[in-house]
């Protein structure tokens, strides 16, 4: 069969529904790389979770690689660039096996097994090289019985970096006055310029690998000063950290490797001193020199450097818990949920929500630069990449989120909730009963418009009959750009206000009545449905029962509460539920 033709000049424009051959290739590509959610939903991010991080149009598909790599894979030819990427993976795996497998029998067996997988990938090039690396390292770890062969290496890197930090040369060069002070209008401006200079110098040190890779590396003051000379401040760095922003930022920080991480932590401390809050994302497990969440427990040097940080080990952090943790801690450390190069299909729910709730993502290293910058894919947050180019020069590059992207901040969502609460107080003061109506909105796939019509018709009916009651219809408060996480966050504030007198949950009789009011027969897909079929309503029933313990006068109307608790966890970012758990 002939190679797949790109529909446009950019792989970022790949969309389903334009070409059956392209659709088939995309599904094959996604499944062969083990990143297709519909095939393995427990190990791959859902489309809704991907949209937390990636700005996608209708039917647009996200591919976790550079445009250049995707072109090579699409053309189905053994391009030199692709073959060299595969060869680099093989050399890396060979070195891992040769260095960390002492048993000769096991070594030969693992090498042979990896060779089979490698040849399969090269002969039919469809696998992203980073996914091949993940597959081969998984084989090594499983067959060798090792969980992290680089643990001691990363400890040594951090220890050497710490020793360098304590030298006179480092302290003198880092803290040296710039020699001249640019014109400024205020002390605040001058303070910002000095912060930019310090961050730039620390970033330059964070990519100077000789510091941690060479034992007893002891450069003099002049050598360190020469290394820092001409470093920054970088315009993109200045732009994204603009002190004239209306508020401080929440920043997601992705380090590159151990050793450099020690300087990244110093950068983070400067950002915190500027009033920002930072989430540091480490790997869940072994990925060569990349720092892991477990290093902070096992490495005394790193543990000391992060002694003031709050660690969160769960991979299913809720929006409320995340926002609360950010408020209470200027530095939060999480796992990205993976043990491979940044792959948004493989990151945890916690990481995806951290990305969504942050204002800026700072990503270190050439690999992150390729994945985030060398693609026309747009992301939902501003991204700043820091890496060394081929000549060893430090580069700082920003990719801003699309100007058309509507993002609701926590204060904006809170303000919407408070406006609803204020109206509830006003109606209650006027002597009205406050009723909240919980109903299916998106829990029946592809029936969201019908669900809203049902909800609107029945609430209108209730309002006509219950003239002394203020009935809250959640569908009336939806705005484009709000996802399910945002709505649950907003409504929980309303529901926990203590102002609800009657909480009514949708019954099948309500649905039947709504169809009668609309003059339509009940379709088969709606037969037997009620609020218990909605995971969102299940969450709301949990809140209702909790509130009833402190407000026993509140009435609950609808299906028996016990019927609700047969659902799985709320689908991340979804308007439909996660389905009934298998029995």
Structural write-up:
The chain is an alpha/beta fold. 47% of the residues lie in helices and 10% in strands. The chain contains 23 helices and 13 strands. The strands form three sheets. It has a seven-stranded mixed sheet with strand order 4-5-3-2-6-8-9, with helices on both faces. Strands 11-10-12-13 form a four-stranded parallel sheet, sandwiched between helices. A two-stranded antiparallel sheet has the order 1-7. The radius of gyration is 27 Å and the shape is globular.
Considering the chains and any ligands shown, give keywords for the structure:
single chain, 583 residues, globular, disordered C terminus, 23 helices, 7-stranded mixed β-sheet, 4-stranded parallel β-sheet, alpha/beta
Strand-helix topology:
Blueprint: H1 20-32, H2 47-53, E1 54-55, H3 67-74, H4 80-100, H5 104-123, H6 129-144, H7 151-165, H8 168-175, H9 187-206, H10 210-213, H11 221-228, H12 235-240, E2 250-254, H13 260-273, E3 277-282, H14 295-298, H15 300-305, E4 310-311, H16 319-328, E5 331-335, H17 349-357, E6 360-364, H18 366-372, E7 378-379, E8 382-388, E9 394-399, H19 410-429, E10 433-438, H20 448-465, E11 469-472, H21 484-495, E12 502-505, H22 508-518, H23 535-550, E13 555-557
Parallel strand pairs: 2-3, 2-6, 3-5, 4-5, 6-8, 10-11, 10-12, 12-13
Antiparallel strand pairs: 1-7, 8-9
Helix pairs in contact: 2-17, 4-5, 4-6, 5-6, 7-13, 8-11, 9-13, 19-21, 20-22
């Amino acid at each position: 069969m002939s190679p797949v033709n790109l529909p446009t000049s950019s792989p970022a424009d790949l969309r389903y529904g334009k070409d059956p051959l392209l659709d088939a290739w995309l599904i094959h590509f996604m499944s062969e790389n083990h990143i297709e959610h519909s095939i393995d939903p427990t190990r791959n991010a859902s489309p809704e979770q991907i949209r937390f991080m990636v700005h996608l149009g209708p039917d647009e598909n996200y591919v976790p690689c550079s445009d250049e790599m995707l072109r090579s894979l699409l053309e189905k030819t053994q391009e030199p660039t692709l073959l060299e990427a595969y060869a680099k993976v093989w050399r890396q795996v060979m070195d891992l096996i040769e260095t960390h497998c002492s048993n000769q029998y096991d070594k030969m067996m693992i090498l042979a097994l990896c060779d089979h997988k490698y040849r399969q990938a090269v002969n039919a090039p469809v696998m992203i090289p980073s996914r091949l690396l993940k597959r081969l390292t998984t084989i090594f770890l499983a067959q060798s019985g090792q969980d992290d062969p680089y643990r001691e290496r990363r400890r040594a890197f951090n220890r050497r970096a710490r020793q360098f930090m304590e030298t006179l040369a480092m302290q003198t060069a880092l803290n040296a006055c710039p020699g001249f002070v640019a014109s400024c209008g205020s002390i605040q401006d001058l303070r910002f310029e000095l912060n930019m200079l310090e961050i730039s110098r620390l970033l330059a040190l964070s990519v100077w690998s000789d510091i941690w890779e060479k034992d007893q590396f002891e450069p003099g003051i002049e050598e360190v000063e020469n290394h820092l000379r001409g470093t920054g401040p970088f315009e993109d760095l200045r732009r994204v950290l603009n002190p004239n922003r209306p508020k401080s930022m929440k920043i997601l920080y992705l380090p590159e490797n151990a050793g450099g991480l020690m300087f990244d932590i110093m950068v983070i401390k400067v950002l915190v001193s500027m009033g920002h809050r930072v989430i540091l994302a480490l790997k869940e497990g072994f990925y060569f020199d990349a720092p892991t969440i477990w290093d902070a427990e096992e490495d005394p040097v790193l543990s000391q450097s992060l002694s003031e940080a709050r660690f969160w080990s769960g991979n299913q952090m809720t929006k409320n818990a995340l926002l609360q943790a950010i408020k209470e801690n200027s530095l939060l450390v999480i796992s990205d949920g993976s043990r491979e190069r940044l792959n948004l299909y493989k990151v945890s729910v916690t990481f995806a929500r951290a990305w969504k709730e942050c204002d800026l993502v700072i990503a270190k290293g050439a690999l992150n630069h390729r994945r985030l910058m060398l693609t026309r894919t747009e992301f939902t947050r501003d991204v700043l990449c820091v890496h060394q180019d081929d000549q060893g020069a430090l580069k700082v590059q920003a990719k801003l989120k699309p100007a058309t992207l509507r993002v609701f901040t926590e204060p904006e969502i809170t303000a919407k909730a408070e406006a609803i609460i204020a109206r509830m107080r006003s109606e209650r003061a006027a002597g009205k009963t406050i009723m909240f109506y919980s109903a299916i909105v998106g829990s029946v796939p592809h029936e969201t418009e019908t669900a809203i019509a049902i909800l609107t018709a029945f609430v209108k009916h209730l309002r006509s009959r219950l003239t002394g009651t203020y009935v809250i219809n959640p569908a009336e408060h939806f705005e484009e750009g709000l996802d399910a996480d945002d709505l649950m966050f907003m409504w929980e504030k309303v529901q926990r206000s203590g102002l609800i007198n009657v909480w009514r949950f949708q019954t099948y009789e309500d649905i039947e009545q709504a169809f009668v009011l609309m003059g339509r027969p009940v379709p088969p897909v709606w037969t037997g449905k009620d609020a218990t079929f909605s995971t969102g309503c299940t969450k709301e029933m949990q809140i209702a029962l909790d509130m009833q313990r402190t407000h026993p006068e509140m009435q609950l109307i609808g299906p028996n509460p016990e019927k609700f608790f047969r659902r799985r966890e709320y689908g991340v970012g979804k308007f439909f539920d996660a389905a009934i758990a298998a029995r």
